Amino acid sequence: MNRRPDVVVRTAPDAPWLPPGSRAEVVRSSVAPSPACLVRLLLRRGDDVFCVPREQTGALDLPTRVVDLSDLDGRVAAAQLALEVLGRNARLVPVGFVRNVVAEDAPDYGWPVPVAHFVVWEASGVPVVDGEWVEAHGAGSLLAERHWFPLLSALS
Questions:
Q1: Contact 119/78 with Cβ under 8 angstroms?
Q2: What DSSP state is assigned to residue 155?
Q3: 32 vs 94: CA distance, rounded Å
Q4: Mean pLDDT of 132-154
Q5: Distance between CA 123 and CA 68 in Å, rounded?
Q6: How many whole angstroms separate alpha carbon 19 and alpha carbon 123?
Q7: What's the angle, vertex CA 19, arms to CA 75 and CA 98, rounded to 5?
Q8: What's the alpha-carbon Rg for the chain, to the nearest Å?
Q9: Does the 7-155 domain belong in CATH 3.90.79.10?
Q10: Among 44, 100, 151, 153, who pairs with 96 as Cys (CB 3.0-4.6 Å)?
C-alpha cells in the first residue's frame, strides 16, 4: 500500500467543543493514528454519504463506534462497524481523522489528553441498516458542522 503524506486540511484553534487553549485538526491520512477514540464509516454515492441518527441526539452523522482501549488504531472497531452496516466484511481504508490536541484536561472533556483521534475509514457497498444518503457537497450540506466534514473536500 502506498502511503501518502498526511495533509492538515483545517485547524480550529480554541475549538469551542474542546477545553480552552486546545485545537482540533482535520487531517487527510492513509494511516490510522493512535490512540483512536471513535471510528466513523464513510460510504459515498456520488456527492452523497450514508448517515444514521446519532444515539444521543438523533442528528444524522456517519455510522460511528467507540474504540476499545486495546484497539490502538481503531482497526478492529472499524471492521465491526462495517460488518454491522454492510452485513459483510469489507475492505476498509483509513482516509483521515480529526485530532484533538488538548493542553490541559477538563472534567467534562472525556477523551485522552494530550491527543485523541477520531478516525474516518472508507468502504464501499450497500448498507443493510436503516439510514439516509445525505448530500455532502459544499457549505450548504446539513453535515457541514460535523468536525470531520472538511475531510471530504480533501478526498475529491
A1: yes
A2: H
A3: 6
A4: 90
A5: 21
A6: 33
A7: 30
A8: 15
A9: yes
A10: 151
